[in-house]
Amino acid sequence: MMYKKPFNPLVKLDIQFFAEKTELNIKSLHTEFKEAWGELKGLLDDQSEEIKKYGTTNDDTVNKIKSVEGKISDIGDEMKEIQKRADEIEKKFGRPDLAGGGQVKSLGEMFVQSEAFEAMKKANEFKSAPMRTKSLYQGSKAIITTADGSGGALTGTQTAQVDMAAPTRAFRLRDLLPVQATQSNAIEYVQETGFTNTARPVAETTAKPESALTFDVMSESVKTIAHWIPASRQVLDDAGQLQAYINNRLLYGLMLAEEQQILYGDGTSPNLQGILTHTGIQGYNWSGGTVGDSKIDAIRRAITLARIAEYPVNGVVLHPNDWEDIQLAKGDDGHYIWVNVNDGGVMRLWSVPVVETTAIAEGEALIGSFNMGAMLWDREDANIRVGEPQDYFTRNMVAILAEERMALTIFRPEAFVGVTFDAAPTAGV
């Protein structure tokens, strides 16, 4: 909202006094809340230990938890009352145009949009609502501020609202895999390790043959993928589009890490067990084929390996450079054998969908029955949190954190074939 009338300086002093007094109250409430939250977390941990040890919790612990919860609720009520008084000030004096024509955010809006207030509201609703108190400040990290070369180019008296975009990767690996939600921190599953089939026609009164199936009970723990960016509160307030951009880029970073883990995680905590690093998958080298085989032939021979193991292949994962080699393949007369230059080609090889991604290394490919051989488990969807760890509150800074929790289970390793484009086969191989 913009105001054209002159602004009374006495009103400005009244509001300034109110703001300074309110800032002290906010700091005090913030400190009280952190202390109460820490106390509540400790009590909840004690209660959990009591339940594990005795199967129940004692009344003293319950009463202490209720008392601390009441304290947190009171802090939230005080914060709401501060916001209410701020709104009354605005109604009485009007919202000043301090920037000479710019739009000014009200005190009330600033209070209810602050992370401290949001955390308090969440604490009233969910006892276990997360609040980061550990230090995220590393000192040497690049902080997004209003300075030139950071977020400064986006701030000023007036910023043109333009779409901010950055190069992105088309994600498809997750689409190949079945995805299941979980409430557990570990997934236990049965992995088939062998099958001996002796089924045959049997004559009357003759003993039936015995087949054999062997299994291993496996377990995969839920892993956390996360990263964060420090930023000044001023630049986020002054350039609203910047925070949306940061959030999107942080989530994009999670997806990059997720794809890398699905393919190459080494299985050592905190990494997922990736498909290409699993010792049980099948392998195929281009050089092991028949003389004259191209990369197209190598893919087909790898598909055969999966089909012999009785797994229908539903995906081929290729690096863009390897996919380019396949699409540019020409016959002896120079014509393209795979694509029509005017229309391009369907993203398929031997009737199997192709996933083109830089997540896989150039010179490698993954063929598999993704829908039968593995599953993704989502414990916590990708999300963004904003907090003020340690001295961030006094520095007018925030930490913007993106994280997700997930697990990958590989039920049938032989459903996958890792292909290496090492070299074209030569005579004598």
Describe this structure in words.
There is one protein chain. The protein is α/β, with parallel strands linked by helices and 429 residues long. The protein has two domains: 1-129, no CATH class; 169-197 and 209-429, Major capsid protein gp5 fold, CATH 3.30.2400.10. 38% of the residues lie in helices and 20% in strands. It is built from eleven helices and twelve strands. A six-stranded mixed sheet has the order 5-12-9-6-8-7. Helix 1 packs antiparallel against helix 2 and helix 2 crosses helix 4 (115-125). It is flat. Residues 1-13, 93-112, 124-140 and 154-163 have low confidence and may be disordered.
Structural class of the secondary elements?
alpha/beta
Q: Give the helix proportion (percent range).
A: 25-40%
How do the SSEs run, as a string of H and E?
A: HHHHHEEEEHHEHEHEEEHEHEE
The total domain count is 2
| Global mean pLDDT | 75
Radius of gyration: 30 Å
* CATH architecture field of the largest domain: 2-Layer Sandwich
Instruction: Count up the helices.
Output: 11
Strand order of the largest sheet: 5-12-9-6-8-7
The proportion of residues in beta strands is 15-25%
CATH top level class name of the largest domain: Alpha Beta
- Annotation, overall tally of beta strands: 12
**Shape from CA axes?**
flat
Outline the secondary-structure elements:
Blueprint (H helix, E strand, L loop, with lengths): L8 H46 L4 H35 L13 H6 L2 H11 L47 H4 L2 E3 L4 E11 L15 E10 L1 E10 H6 L1 H25 L17 E4 L9 H14 L6 E4 L1 H8 L20 E2 L2 E5 L7 E5 L1 H4 E14 L4 H4 L1 E14 L5 E5 L9
Parallel strand pairs: 1-10, 5-12, 6-8
Antiparallel strand pairs: 2-3, 4-11, 6-9, 7-8, 9-12, 10-11
Helix pairs in contact: 1-2, 2-4
